[in-house]
Design a protein that fits this description.
By secondary structure, the chain is mainly alpha-helical. It is built from six helices and three strands. Helix 4 packs antiparallel against helix 5 and helix 5 packs across helix 6.
Length: 128
């Protein structure tokens, strides 16, 4: 497991360990995309900046693994669990990823910073 990031691959999908991406590890990555379900993948925001500078597309963990939370939270709906509603909400993850990638490309910002901006904006709009 300590050398998997050295392997040449199109997509690296970290799905178990958090805080995996340090400066040292990022320098050895040999992939085009990072997209996986492990929580808290970046050591810090600068690690995400470094991934971006390397030209690696990074889908932040809380976007990539949103489906699990959507599924679990469905039980909290007033009318109970509705699989059709879950599927509809899961489709929105694709739209959110596209939005993040589009903004990142237009503004020249790393995807993890854009995802944080989008998340904050959505929380503020929800008036929580």
């Amino acid at each position: 497991h300590k050398t998997i990031h050295h392997q040449q691959m199109h997509i690296y999908a970290p799905c178990a360990l958090g805080y995996e991406f340090s400066e040292k590890i990022i320098g050895t990555l040999n992939c085009e995309i990072i997209c996986g379900g492990a929580n808290n993948q970046l050591i810090d925001d600068e690690a995400g900046d470094q991934i971006s500078k390397r030209g690696i597309l990074y889908v932040p963990d809380y976007v990539a693994n949103a489906g699990g939370l959507i599924f679990v939270c469905e039980d909290l709906e007033q009318d109970g669990f509705n699989l059709d509603r879950v599927h509809s909400r899961l489709q929105n993850i694709k739209n959110t990823v596209k939005l993040i990638l589009d903004i990142s490309d237009k503004k020249g910002l790393p995807t993890h910073r854009v995802a944080d901006m989008v998340a904050l904006e959505r929380v503020e709009q929800a008036n929580l």
